[in-house]
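Run: sequence + zinc ion -> complex structure.
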Amino acid sequence: MNQLRQLIKHSLTAVIPRRLFLVQGAPRLQVPTPSLAAHSDPRTQIPIALTFDDGPHPEFTPRLLDVLKHYQQQATFFVIGSQALQYPEIIQRMIREGHEVGNHTLTHSEPALTSAKQFLEEISQTDQILHEITGCIPRLVRPPKGKLSLGKMLGLWRRRKTIVLWDTDPRDYQMTDTAQINQWCEGYQPAAGNFCLMHDNHPYAIEAVRQLSENQQYNIQSLGVSHWLGCSANQTQINHRAYA
Ligand SMILES: [Zn+2]
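>> structure
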């Protein structure tokens, strides 16, 4: 992401209400952090949001869900509608195991080649697919590559969506072996409220969750994005009757 886009992102974060646009959690906000881990741990607990895009994937997503369950980490998945249609049982498992599900368009079409009308149509189609699978319409949306135009943004807000970007990016989609994710995990210094972007259609997120959860210096506790909106996971679903 270039410097100009970073600047625009930070400027938007400063002026737009959190219920409309989130890049990270609010470290200054007094966030109650319910400990999902039962045991007491002397390491400092750092609440962050692990987010996974571009799934569900038939092999990697179930393995990732196993690891999240093992370490009692709650994640947010921004799923592609066409993938959800192919693997609805994986979406149902995400919900059953306490994770949050957001909309990442129907086909992950290239933002530069997708009009606002087409983008919003893909959002609506994915909403319908997720509604059929889960009974709910997600409030959280992550646009492909984090790229939006004014028309796309306004269209999402008219649909009462919260746009969710990220402030931490290991670029796991570019990695070619486990050594690269190991190196990133070793260098990562988590801060409360980090929104970390990874991908569950690649294998490296699985190892990242394992390593971050077992770090000896800190104790990250991943919470769903709704935690930073000050609402519960099921309040991040839009009542379909109110959605015309
Ligand atoms: Zn994506």
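>> summary
The beta strands are 21-22, 44-53, 75-79, 100-103, 137-138, 140-141, 162-164, 195-199, 218-222, 237-238. The CA atoms of residues 13 and 21 lie 7 Å apart.
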